[in-house]
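Bumping with the actual sequence this time:
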Amino acid sequence: MAREGPLRRSARGPWAIPLASAALIAFAFLVRGRSTALFDAGLVAATLVAGRPIAVRAVRDLRIRRIGIEALVTIAVTGAFVIGELWEGAAVTFLFALGGALERAAVGRTRNALARLFELAPETATVRRDGEEVVVSPSEVRRGEIVVVRPGGKIPVDGEVVAGRAAVDESSITGESMPVEASAGRTVYAGTVTAGGLIEVRATGVGADTALARIIHRVEEAQESKAPAQRAIERFAAWYTPAIAVLAAVTFALTRQVELALTLLVIACPGALVISMPVSMVAGIGRAARDGVLVKGGEHLELVGKVTAVAFDKTGTLTVGAPRLVDVVPVEGAAERDVLAVAAAAESGSEHPLAAPILAAAAAQGIVPSVDHGAFVHHAGAGVETTFEGRTVAVGTTSLAAELGVEVDAVVLDRLEQLRLAGRTSMVVIDDGTIVGVLGLADEVRADAAAGIERLRDIGVEEIVMLTGDSQLVGDAVGRAVGIDRVRGDLSPEDKLAAIRELQQRGHVVAMIGDGVNDAPALATADVGIAFGGGATAVAVETADVGILSGHLARVATAIDLSRRTARVVRQNVAIALFTVTSLLVGVLLGEVMMAAGMLVHQVSVVAVVLNAVRLLRGGSEPAPLPADLGPTATEPVRGQASPVAR
């Protein structure tokens, strides 16, 4: 089957009607000076293209005895056509169709989030049945069965490890990039990935009863509960539309003047009112985009300005999101450079995520060890060893030291504890049967994190909290570095969701800022979900209401400030529109306003509303300058396990 081209897709997409209407309006004005008939035909065609769906919805609403904005626009456009004001009808229907397209496009993107979540689930599971390994669908695995997961494989169920050892990347569930040790007795989750070892898992959660499935359910539930509220203009139209229709009918009954009745309908056409909010929101969203902030719709932009509490994920948001060698602590009189050289030698044949930062730190000091890769041994979940200059060298956990028969004395244990309390992921370095040093790895705090937090306080955010799946110790360390006092660690995705709801129950309008799949339920449940940075997962970006693309935390405050400015402009525009319509209606009834003068004032009000909204596009909103002592080499810890990591 031939692939559908972009033009054909566009013709069937949400933008087809407003684009066609705009093209016909443009055509009308291009031929205006040459042919009045073609000018009129272009405007009529534009109105019919954009207005037909509006009229259809209006009729459907009337059948269920509901009068909405569609009925208001349909009556106004019909009146405009009767008295020959074709441009009025074309303009109103085009603007209304444009607003509807923006809404549908935003809804379509958020639906993709669930598809991305489903992609995380593995397609097959290897189950041990009757002494044989059988490949089945994950949904066919029964509770209590043993599932075999090989290196690099996705774990298909929630369960408990009963045999084997491996490093497991749990970032899809916890959001933390540091791999964890999965050995006998540890709980693992569906959708996570093993590395460097084979494990056997007894299934305790299958199908819809897994952590990943619950995340999907929570996102669905939260998005459904956030169905868009009726726009304020629709509530206004619920009484405004029938009131104008009755007023026009009464006027005709009393005066028998058809033109006066139609004049009322046309003058009452809320051209400025219809565009007062959309044009302001579009301008605000455009301004935000220029500042690296993507907002999915006007209602989200409006809500951002009401935020009183902000909850941050830690990893990839307040932190960079990649491990870095922070500490090299020699023991037994060894030199720091020698410890690093031994560690680099041991890791040179490893593909483990923690090998890269160690090798990078060594290379930065000109250390490129020559080792016998044939002697490389990977100890699943514990560490690595190899031969270097005739000696056996190794890097890993204290469990690895025990396997190799190496004593871990009180001095080493004290160094490991100090690193643990500082939030580092710690490892011992072994050289020929002796521990010569301890390594501490951690993520690093973003250079502008503290300034971004301070700016939020400056604009009046009442409460700022960190919600992290990492340990409380690590969270506290990052909190001190960035100036967040309230830190909640060791949280699952559902715990984060509960924390958001707790803030909401206390009366806060809550913004959740995160970048991972594990943040998706909290992002969807928060009043405003904000996906942070270019590294944010597709699920986070599509679930959130706002996306910060630049990676600057100060942009969060920029978004809130811009929302408040936009809200002020919206209020001003609504006031202009209502004042104009009210004044014109009174003028018509008193016989002081004729059609020509009324239409002129009406058009002036439309221009005034547009120009007022355009003010949002002027000026700039730059992030607050960074403190002089912060820069790209900041080394504050941001991710580490409370205990040595699995290798």
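The tokens above came from a reply further down the thread. The radius of gyration is 32 Å.
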